[in-house]
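Example A, followed by Example B.
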Amino acid sequence: MEFGNSRKKKRLGDILVEQNVINEEQLKEALVLGREKKLRVGEALIELGVINETDIAKALQKQMNLGFVSLQGFQIEPDVLNLVEPDILKKYCLMPYEYDPVKPNVLRVAMSDPMDIMAQDDLSIITNLQIEPVVATTTDIRIAMLRNLTTDLLVHGKVETTEARAKEVKK
């Protein structure tokens, strides 16, 4: 029985080539750019205009065997929103969006970088819940922050303009 190869994780670039999203030349170009500018391969591919955020998120989903969520139109319950301070959400670019319906001690969290173990650990400590990372695009998470956090602030009597909130989220 061979254990070594079956447990080895494929690299993101290799998955994108396998899925015919990019070719070998584009991957090589992205690797060079990534080294020059200290970017991850996905960031370099996006900068080169070869792929978009959703392509990266879907490849990450496959690489890590995680779920994928689009937060567009998703209504996040206030009790979930109130679990974590907005500063933490912005720091790690993540958005808790629901409790697992079968395991209520598990919080599902949309993350642009589900490999960020520190973010998961911090969130687990803050919420006292187990964290289930789910892949989402950075843009989707930021839009969800604007929509949900602004609404939450207005509901709780704090008036903040969408423009001011957008600037705050981008920081």
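Example B, a separate protein, is given below in the same form.
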Amino acid sequence: MTTTSTCRVYGSDCPICKSGTLQDMPCNTPTQVEIKVKLLSPNATLTRATAGASGFDLHLHDPAFIMAGEVRTLPVGVALEIPPGYEGQIRPRSGLSRMGVNVAFGTIDSDYRGAIGVIVTNNSGGPLRCDAGMRIAQLVFVPVVIPTLTIVYELGTTDRGSGGFGKSAQD
């Protein structure tokens, strides 16, 4: 893994990075991380649509036919070596979502070395034909914070309290 010593947010004048006390702050996140990719077939690939794209497109390994209402795990023909402190997130593509095709959000942990699959649900109302090479999902790499968990008998109070599932939009 390659890292830089300049803070991504504040540059070389970052008081947080200079102090050395808050090493896990987002401003101290490396700007370059090496992810090793094993292609499991000759036609497997990861691509980025544009230079500004935050994710890599995952392409379908084999053709698939998914009936309406069916849930399938589709192989993309790659395996990854993600360094500790990072995860890969499988995310939907907006073009498929508009068609009623849902991709389950997924996490690829840094210690997983197997083939990557994408869980797809066809809610389009009709059968879905997926050709080999089709961009089926996005893969985004992000830093992971592993907190120290503390078991307590009471939690601090907030204005929101325990209101959830749309509560903040009702205020």
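On Example B: Residues 1-5 have pLDDT under 50 and may be disordered.
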